[in-house]
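Researcher: Let's walk through a ligand-bound prediction step by step. First, I give you the protein sequence. Second, the SMILES string for nicotinamide-adenine-dinucleotide. Third, you return the three-dimensional complex as structure tokens. Ready?
Model: Ready.
Researcher: Here are steps one and two:
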Amino acid sequence: MRIAIIGFGTAGEGRLHAYRTVAAGRVVAVLDPSPERRARALRLDPGVVTYATLAELLAAQPVDAVDICAPPNRHVELEREALTAGLHVICEKPVAVRTDEALDLINLARERGRLLYPAHNYGFSPMMRVLTGAVTGGRLGGPLRARFQIARDSHARGVPGWQPDWRRDVAVAQGGIMLDHGTHCAYMATQLFGEAPRTVSCLAQWADGDAASGMDLAARLNLEFNGGGTCEIDLSWVSGTRSNRYLLSGPGGTADVHDGVAEVRTAHGVERTDLAPPSRDQTHQEWFGGMFADFAGLVAAGTGWDRPMREVVTTTALIEAAYRSAGRGGEPVVPAGFSAAQAR
Ligand SMILES: NC(=O)c1ccc[n+]([C@@H]2O[C@H](COP(=O)([O-])OP(=O)(O)OC[C@H]3O[C@@H](n4cnc5c(N)ncnc54)[C@H](O)[C@@H]3O)[C@@H](O)[C@H]2O)c1
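Model: Step three, the predicted complex:
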């Protein structure tokens, strides 16, 4: 598959390296409006052709898919343009910010017979393998309780060739840590509980103490599931430390994944595994092979596309509901659903 990377910053550069490890995809083009970033792409891979706009790329270069690693405020327009041009699309999180946009995108993808695939890379992490292994076959039993704790001393910074602090500019970032890291927690919870939450409640700490800023620096989300399970998600860019912890418990035992160490306790004993910690490489290149194999396998099969496209909608709806709840002082909000009627 011939791939164009769109947005050659931290994530895009990580992708260029990661594509070298997969057989089914080859990067032939890189798009970035920044001349500095285009020059960097050519230094790293003189074989790629660089472009400043998607229109130029589409006019000049045949590609099968685009991998969108541009800043969040550009995702929807780039996805639309690429799908309309008949390309498969992988898009970094957030794939969309509003549920109606997410539904429009998957409807467009279906009309064009192309796959819209979320770069939900934590789903392919060693942490998720342990957690999924602990819940499969009912090992922990149910209802399940979960607690995710994501602590950071700051938001990540972007590359110097563009706007390194775009994550604090709501016009570009479209939100704060809930949209940035909360998105990963949202699809992880939905995958582990096997369903989207029934309600979402959220309290947030806003930049300058002002919800109107739209920039959440820390948040606590509570998800309630139809099956009786609950998931609490603590996110912070202002905690002064850096760690990821995922705790799951059920009547049959517990799973605790804390940075590089995973421990699953059940009646059969304790399994301890050392994992590569999730917080070292910002783009997590080592998780890419599994994610791309999933994408390429779905494209080749031409079926099974409902799973990733549904996840685009459920993830967007969950985070949208969290912002709505935080804006209403933590009142529970029912996330917009994914129904056959909404998605043609
Ligand atoms: N899944 C993950 O683990 C992960 C990790 C890092 C970043 N990301 C995501 O990747 C995206 C980019 O983040 P980043 O950290 O690489 O940011 P960055 O600032 O390092 O890079 C952004 C790049 O996009 C370019 N750009 C700006 N406007 C553009 C446009 N209209 N079209 C194409 N390119 C444009 C900039 O010139 C810059 O090179 C974000 O959506 C972020 O959430 C995901």
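Researcher: And what stands out?
Model: The chain has eleven helices and 14 strands. The chain has two domains: 2-118, 122-327.
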